[in-house]
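Database export, one record per block. Field names are fixed; values are copied verbatim from the stored entry.
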Amino acid sequence: MSAVRQFNNSDDANFNADGKLRIALAGNPNCGKTTVFNGYTGARQHVGNYPGVTVDRKEGHITVGDNQVTLVDLPGTYSLTAYSMEELVARRELAAGNVQAVIDVVDASALERNMLLTVQMLEMGAPVVLCCNMMDEARAAGIHIDMERLSSLMGIPVLPMVARSGEGLTEAMNVAVQLAKQGKRNALRISYGSDIDPVLLNMEKRIEDAGLLASKYMPHWVALKMLEADSEILSEVRAANAELFEELDAMRKKTISHVRSTLNTNLESIITDYRYGFIRSLLRDGIVTQDAGKDRLAISDKLDRVLTNALLGPIIMIGVLYLMFQVTFTLGAYPQGWVEDGFALLGEVCTALLPEGLAQSLVVDGIIAGVGGVVSFVPLILIMFVLISFMEDSGYMARVAYMMDRIFRFFGLHGASVMPYIIAGGIAGGCAIPGVMATRTLRSPKEKLATLLTLPYMTCGAKLPVFLLLAGAFFPDNAPTVMFLLSVVGWVMALLVARLLRSSIVKGESTPFVMELPPYRMPTLMSLLLHCWERGWMYLKKAGTVLVAISVLIWAAMTFPGLPEDKAAPFETQISQLEEKLAPLAEGDEARAPIEEELGNVQNALKEEQLAFSVAGRLGKAVEPATRPMGFDWRTDIALLAGVAAKEAVVATMGTAYAMGEQDAEDPTPLAERLKGDGAWSKATALSLMLFVLLYSPCFVALVVIRQEAGSWGWVAFSILFNTALAYGVATAAYQIGRVVWG
């Protein structure tokens, strides 16, 4: 049936340069691997990206006896082929030579499907500990596994595990450490039939004799991957030895031709079939048995008849998603208010401590106000992430992607694109930053790119103050309808632009919708809290640190250069005269009111003149001719330029730009009244501005994250230019049509 060949044997401890053993954690998606990793590492884990890609890199450092261990959580993957970035990353990590053992986590009640990855790792020569996780669910379903016999047949340790309760975690890690210290690599050999085995042996001999890629891979595995036409291995072999590559490639092509002509199939399919045949031969004859009348999937199947029903499924899904955001905003309102009050108090303290001047303005108006506006959203984001993690871990998120796939596929996207859209504000109130991060779940680089370039069209929480301000001011009787239609426009534009991109500059084959619908299960509290902390900290770190710089830049642009004394003098003289008139008048004196009103107008006029003279004011006036077709003047342009830095700044900047002083985005009534009374504003202007804010360039922090996920500043430039051009066209059309309709 098979044979195990020892590739390398060392009795010395196999440590890395840092003196630590390095053990990898591998497994299929939904096998409980994340729970295992959290069970070992808890909060002692580091999350980053693998070099050059955006796949999560998770590591944790633990102590096992006298040994220091670095635990590497490999991306969840079904195999070690070259079809997705997760598969490539997992394979490269295993082949790099710095992983001494692998804990392979499999779903105990789905061994046949899960063990395809196990077999491929064994063929690669990795020392593997096979851990049958979720044994509690398997036992409840009447499934029994003969661990000792399976271990004997495979030649590797096989252990039971229940990661949720911690059962088997210690035993698995102890065995993995023993394997790692032995430093042995054993290659599993499977017969692939008379058409392939002779060619495989011949290629293996030529590779071994030449020492081809010997520092990374075993000869048998290199030959096998070449027969599978693995693009990465073919490239590595060609680069290492072009002459030998031509010889091996000729053997490969000859075998492909023979198999196709005689069996009417391809080599990869045959190899996969034989692997599954090997797995089935292992699991038969009493290795896995199940009590009669018990079915683990019965409850999940019954739920799916309702939750994924063609009619009820989408309705329930919309209800669940709407409820998720209702809970987020209802529960988050309290801690959000506390954070806002905290920053307000901090601003008051700094105002009292710092002398009036530039330093006070920088700290209070620039840094505290700017950072506080974003940090106040953190409670909402943490709650949102807990709920999203619950949906993911419970298995419902897979159903959402399944139901949306048919619609999204028509527009060149994948069913899994729905969650990045929702997180980004598909239901008003999300944020593009975690939405862009959520595109990491997409396996196809093309579909991922089309998704992350279009999800900024969603109605994120930072845009809502603008929409609430203008809808309430200019469409008071239909404000809810306007808000709803803006969300619909965001979805429609995202899907249409995705279709355009997938038909032009982001062409590529659609990824088959292959997704396991895992059984429904109750997530653990520890898993939810760790997900929440991990994602929330990433948001806070990226948004908070970058926003400090943005806030300072916006403040500086609206402050410098200061208004020359000769231009400020008339205003200051008038202000002094009015203050002198007020001084002798008692509070409540009727004569004070007109003087105070005049004083306020003069002060606002001075602020407007100072703003117009600043860098931001000059820039706003410079672009005003271009924005006139949309109905915007230079003051609106300043706010939109600030919005590129952070959408939260649009309303506050408009308040200052329109000489109304500092505005509270939560209570924009004074600004609304000013806009309604401004002859340059109309319903057409308001509609134009709402559509422009909805569609134009993402904020700076989102652009930084897009750069990290897309891997190129070119796509960032495209996102700025294309989205702004699209917004310009839509807003101009809306304004011109609105002028005709509303006059």
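Remark 1: Residues 398 and 442 are 13 Å apart (CA to CA).
Remark 2: The chain has three domains: 2-189, 197-283, 299-550+666-743.
End of record.
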